[in-house]
Amino acid sequence: MEISQMEQLLSDQWTSAASAGRDQLERDDLRQILDFGTWEDVQVQIQSSRGDPSIHQEFAILVHGLLKLRTFTDNWIRQASSRIDTSVLWGLLRVFLKVPPFFKLLGCAASNVIRMLRENCHKIDILNNQFTEANTFTAELKECCVEIGVTFLSFLFSVVKFMRNDIIYTTHGTSLEIEWAFLEQQFSSTSRHIDEVLSRIEMLSKFAERSSQASRTSSVQAQPLLSPSLKQLSLSVKQAKLPCVVLPAIRTSRYFDRVNVGQKIEVHFNKVGTEQSFRSLAIHGLGGVGKSIVALRYAENKLRKGELDALFWVHSEKLVSIKQSFTDIALRLKLPDARQGDHDENLALVLNWLQQTHCRWLIVYDNAEFADLIRDFWPLASRGQALITTRNPSLAFELADRMMEHTSWDNQTGLSFLLHLLSTDITSDLKEDVLTSAQQLSQKLSGHALAISAMAGLIHSRALSIAEFMNFYDQAPSHLHGISGNRSINALWSISFKSLNPQSHTILGVMAFVEPDSIPQALFEFESPDDVPESLRFCSDRLSFSSAIETLLTLALVKRDRTSRTFSLHRLVQAAFKHSMTSEQRQEAFNNAAILTYHTYPQKDANRANLYLMWDLCAKYLLHVISLKDCFREEKKLNPKFTALSLYCSLNNSCQRYLLEINSLDDLADLIEVNTMALNTLPPEDQAISLQGSLTPHRGQLLLRLGKPEEGVQLLEKSYEIRSHNVPFSPRESAWAANNVATGMATLNDFTEALEWYERSRGHYLEWSNQQENKGELSPTIMIEMGLCLVYSALRQIEYTNPYNWARAAGAHFGLGLVDRHNIDFESAETHFLEAQNLWLKGDQMRTNPFNAGCMYRLGCVAMDRGKVESAVRYLRDALTITQMRPHITMAEHARVLFKLSEALEQEPRHREEAQLMREEAERLLRLRSPNAVNPGSECTYDSLILIEWR
Predict the structure, then answer these.
(1) What is the pLDDT of residues 56-97, one digit of tens each?
(2) Which CATH number applies to 244-405: 3.40.640.10, 3.40.50.300, 3.30.420.40, 3.40.228.10?
(3) In this structure, what DSSP letter does residue 228 have?
(4) Element (H or E) spanning 245, and its range?
């Protein structure tokens, strides 16, 4: 590459980062950066702080580091590319130093910001020294130099954004710690990145010492640990934290005689020419023969040899567990915009990263059942490795390059494994009768690894010799039936389960109905023994609980990870144990699991209508609620007399609220269906108004979001009627019910009726509020949805609410933006829509939520109004990315974005064909959604079909 090309690429990298940062700045800050962008301007600002000794002292500490930064920008950045304009960096520093009230307000937190800057400047000085010691400022060093500069520049933008927030930031321990923690996270990321580049430069230096001057550059460029090539600069926003390892929390150390299997896997992935290609392999076989262990051991060996930069484990049995696995991967990679709960966005981020990264990665899809379930989660990459474990050979054939069957051991290997597990219980000098008994046991179990492991646990727990256990085992009824086609294995499960004491039996019963891969010990840690049935109260005694768990561990039925405080068990153990229980025992075990999960799952605060502040904890227990849901449906099918507890229905109602908030509508619909079944099993006197009053509005709100507002409003009105019969009457719950009806009426465009319901909601809420400490306060939610005339009042109250309700504030700004656009105040409208989006995303919420799409759509509309076609296209394409993820759900939203984007593209001759296709698709969707719609060429026609909250 010629030097001029290199300089241009480096300059483009810097310009891109600077442009992205500027878009997030306030207008006044942007003006100051443009007007004051030199080192001399920073010096003047420091000198002007002399009037305040405390602030000047803080600045004086920073000056030495800034001098090192100046050396870096003037000497090395300039050498890397003379086209790079570093004025934005000095302008940002001046803005930071120019706000004395900020430092007085933050106290020691401000000192921490200065410390962060000083430490990064110190590391940059180390970089200065390394560049000075290098004989030649090579292309690789120039790339490293600009990479550090861009990283530091991005951190400065984060500092200014943090400083400009309206919230009073404090140190640790306050309710606003999340905002401060975000800046700390940015600082840690910046420091880590600088350290990585420093290490890379050291490696380059050492390699250069072993190379001749003539071959130095080409040799260095061949090293696999170099940073991504300049061709990848456009992917800088996708940089991830490496190495990254996401494995199941609980792993087994019992790996026996699988060396040949690992070698076969290695041969497949190491075929000639595969370094630049994507390879996949599926391991299929019966449940319990050790497929997952083989995959895990292969992955761990690759890590140990240093042959992987990233390793990911995907729990692939259910759709919800696959989604959560990809969310975990995105968060562990620290991909930009990854957020807990935003599964669609996280999936897109991870798949995009896998497609574009040049690092060495392996992804394992464990316990996959159906090809259709994981097809949407399959990487379309040009490199990397994917491994599937499955009991379904047809799945292996559909997705993988090659499939490999993993069979049970032969009798001799099974015998060796059994003796290996019992090596601490038997002598090395085996007598012939003992060996014969062991051979017979192995033969009966057909070399099944999980069954042999369970048998060893039985022998150990009963302190029997192998011959004694053989005699005991032979007494088991030969006619035993179970989940296995092998009667000897069924007999083994029967003996194992009969060996359990009542406490161990109860715990395993709970574990049989929840998600088996990661069961938090906190599930068994309740506040009061009075909260649970008598059979569970022993869990509150640490000694009794530990003893019961130890029995399960000894019998190899359960595994435990002490660090994460989680348990796991094999799905075959779950199935076999449920099969061994009577109908009454299954009912009691399910009820116990439901009760424990209810007391662990986050409950809606008495003073709040949502769970926004508890999303992380909701996500932690979501898989267990989904497992209970699936189990209830299965049990009800097997036993029509199977019933639910009212607490189980309450648990589902809480989870429904969470699924509604994260817009996970498919999971919500399924949970509502099962919860309706569960509620119908309760006696009429137990079908409390509170249960029906929560289930019914969730069904109604689901229908509103699915584009069926007429049906939704009917259910919401029914919910209000149910709440009106509360004894004693609950004005607060009736207020929320009336507010839901008003939202539905507004979505139907019946604004007169909507306002009447809002007034009714307002009256109920004031009735409740007058009974509280802060008498007469009206809910921010109701104020915002009553109309934009109350928005400013609502915002004022929100600002004084602790903790800060960012979601409601975002909705208020969205409404203000609509009013300003109607009044042709486009600049103010743009400000409000940006603030709405920033508040939503700052609350660490989902980019794929329709509200975020609505913000980007409105920003595109305002940009069109102002004649900024290029910006409009960018915003509208971003909105389209979200709406097209689930077009069957967000049909109206998708149609209006297509329509508006077609208008924008129509203004560019080269895009008119694309614009015409989009317009046709928009009108097709409009006819599907509203067959009687008129005037398909009007923005208002599409807007009238959108849920009022993001219209």
Answers:
(1) 566 666 777 888 888 889 888 888 888 888 888 888 888 887
(2) 3.40.50.300
(3) P
(4) strand 244-246
